[in-house]
Amino acid sequence: MKITIAFFSLIFVSSSGVAQDVRVGVFGLFHPDRLVVSARTGSAVVVHVAEESLVLEESSGVNIADIRVSGDNVVLRVGTRIFHNPRITVTSRNNGPADFNLAIAGRITRHYRGTLEVKPYARALTAVVTMDLETAVASVVAAESASDTPAEAVKALAVAARSYFAAGKGRHHDFDFCDTTHCQFLRAPPANNSSAAQAVDATRGLVIAYQSQPFAAMYTRSCSGRTLTPDELSLPPAAYPYYSVDCKYCREHPSQWQSRLSSEDAVALRGSNESSRLSLDRRLGWSAVPSNTFVVRREGEQTILRGVGRGHGMGLCQAGAKAMAEEGATYREILAHYYANTDVIPLGGVPPPRRLTERSRSRQFDGLSVPLKK
Ligand SMILES: [Zn+2]
Ligand SMILES: [Zn+2]
Fold it and tell me: How far is 362 from 356, CA to CA, in rounded Å?
């Protein structure tokens, strides 16, 4: 019996007991050659460059780090001081995650929570925020959920988003995920009392697993009345088979769209092919071809597409999940419907922290967790 308890707490420490970090490349869509970092009201951040550490704080009068690209270096200006270095990082005073604002002057300012690294890449700046997994999940759920989405549908999305982060790494070279729908749309972390933060908290550490393995769960804004399989979209088989499941809401309330393409662009779109749709949307804008379910009609030099649904059409349908929740379904029922033959499990396959016994809680701080932290 003793052996069983020791074994169990050891597994716990190596999984849920250790915070997972996610490295998110942000603002890549803008290819910025200049970024501005600032501390948020009431807090300080530290900019590290070479051997120097520079504090940004509103009350000190020095609150702006201006970062530009110059060849293989970044040029950092803080107050009257200027530095040239291959990279800079931004942390809290104790080298941990900080709350800071990152801006592209005149275009966008966004709040992030994590540590920031900025370096040049292809004559632009690459900004990577390393954030705690749960912060990343909350920042996606907040970006993806409309304010009228019922709690159980938000929770279902939280579990899917967490699964994607936990199992979907490797889509980018310099970081794990980008902040666009190529990976997952991510904005600022939500306020603690928001529905997004509460849904993330209520499902903390939970992921979707197929044959006991978490997988990068895909989700789509709405579908065509049934979800699509990778094969139908000319995608390679995924770790999870993605069955086509019925979606009552979209079947009864299809989200319709119409779009005009030039003949050349229409040729580039090879039917219901997710890769060609994405490359076309990247070039023409994200509403050029909103989904993979459409019919084509020629009109002179132009091609008219009439379609239904938003997004690739695979996995959880957000419109259908919302309707299921409004009819009383729980997040587990929603996930079981859209991801058939899966289980909701704690990341690492062991219970989340709130179920810990006092004995295993004390084991968490006996030093075992330290080497596993990074
Ligand atoms: Zn991406
Ligand atoms: Zn649907």
Answer: 10
pLDDT digits (tens, 9 = 90+) for 66-112: 999 999 999 999 999 999 999 999 999 999 999 999 999 999 999 99
Which ligand does the CA of 227 lie closest to? Answer: 2
CA of 9 to the centre of ligand 2 (A): 41
pLDDT over threshold 90, residue 349: no
Centre of ligand 2 from the C-alpha of residue 261, in Å: 25
Q: What is the pLDDT of residue 269?
A: 85
Ligand nearest to the CA of 221: 2
**Cα separation of 207 and 160, whole Å?**
7
Q: Helix, strand, coil: what percent of the chain each, to 5?
A: 30, 30, 40
Q: For residue 176, report the distance from its CA to the centre of ligand 1, in Å.
A: 8
Question: Smallest Cα–Cα separation from 203: which of 341, 318, 334, 323?
Answer: 334
**CA dihedral in degrees (136, 138, 144, 146; nearest 10)?**
-160
CA 90, distance to chain mean position in Å, is 21
| pLDDT tier, 350 (very low <50, low <70, confident <90, very high otherwise) | low
Q: What is the pLDDT at residue 357?
A: 36
Q: What is the pTM of this model?
A: 0.85
Q: How far is CA 328 from CA 150, 221, 325, 369, in A?
A: 10, 20, 5, 40
Closest ligand by atom to 324 CA: 2
Length of the chain: 374
pLDDT tens digits for range 203-243:
999 999 999 999 999 999 999 999 999 999 999 999 999 99
Where do the structural domains in the chain lie, given as residue ranges?
A: 19-202, 219-338
Residues in Cβ contact with 201 at an 8 Å cutoff, skipping those fewer than 6 apart? none
Ligand 1 centre distance from Cα of residue 180 (Å): 6
